[in-house]
Amino acid sequence: MVETGAEAAPGMVRWWMAGLLLGPITFVMSLDRTAIVIAAPTIQAEYHFTLVQMSYLLTSFSWTYALLQVPSGWLAERFGPRKMLYWANMLWSLLTALTPAGSGFASFVVLRSLLGAGQSADWPSSVLALKRWFPRAERAKANSILLGGLYLGPIAAAPITTLVILHFGWRWAFYGFGLVGVLIGFAWWFGFRDDPAKHPMVQAAEARLIAVGQAEESSQPARGAFLVGLRSVQFWAVGLQYFFLVMIQSFYTTWLPTYLVRERNFSLASMGIYASLPWVALFVMVFVTGAFSDTILRYTGSVWMARVPVAITGFAVSALALIAATRTPQIWLMMVLLCVSLGAIGLTQVSIWSATQDLGRSSTGVVAGWTNFWGNAAGVVGPVLTAYLVEWTGSWAGALLGIALSGFAGAVLWLFVHPERPVAALAGLTPASLPALSS
Prior knowledge:
With 439 residues, the chain is mainly alpha-helical. Helices cover 79% and strands 0% of the residues. The protein has 18 helices and no strands.
């Protein structure tokens, strides 16, 4: 068989592409996105922005990022991930370096919105690049490299950005990250090819291995799959539960540094270290959960057992730990609980993207795009709502109680998700053949 011959010595260029190009690009993108969060207390003090103004400034990125996800995916398919990711990387690196040019609230919001537009191409282009370079059997490991780069961003951004701020000022953090992004963009352009067979370093055996994996792909999504999916309870449940998950996660991506400095009286130096710890917990738990879920599936043979109880547990633990963290006076215990809370989100994150594949089958992209839209919407709503709740309740504890309650709503929604029953329209049927779709 061709696969046997290819497996004898398939080469490793595809792994170098993922590890030395895609992973680093996603990492720097995450640094660029997260730097403003670490610098937020300093920027707020310098420009005298209110907490509500800061919430709009910090979420302005997500507005354009969410709205352009689907168009960016189409452009990546149309022009190829090499061109799309190169020009997008150059755009967002330039905008990162221009961030200090902001002179007031409106200009900062505009610059952050443009950054969101530039970065909207990263995820669909990166996923498409991995699809073209890896056979289906290897994509889970390849995607873990991509996710690893994404989660390493918040881990590294806090200490790196804080160090630069303390020694050179907050503006130089953005100058430096922008320059690094430009350099990685050049490496991507010269090191990547849309077609693996055309890469000068790819040998015939590796090209055959990749080609065999591409030939096994499923057919195109069913015609009208999205419209028919809107009639599915599961379709809505899996999307809305991700909205509630990101409502909790948005506290860590947006407000954690400010909370530690303003509410818990951390110094800027100590905040830079402690703010990264919950992300370390999430990074570890994603890989632990993947192995744990596969073990459940292997021993029980039940997709439902491997997805739903794990996701519900993640929601419940994350919400309860966040509530407890805001009410304990002990700093060490608070940090432990915050790590538990964000780490538990890893249980649900792994379950979500596995479930979208189970539910969607050949139309997984439709389900995943729908789910990611709701998550990015929460990335806008969550931080703004948190800011308003702080003002209304007069305390962070009261605000975070409201945010944490969304975790219980997400857990309830998982009771309506049945991964063992694919959304029929998205598995390859047409709308005409499904007059009474409901699950």
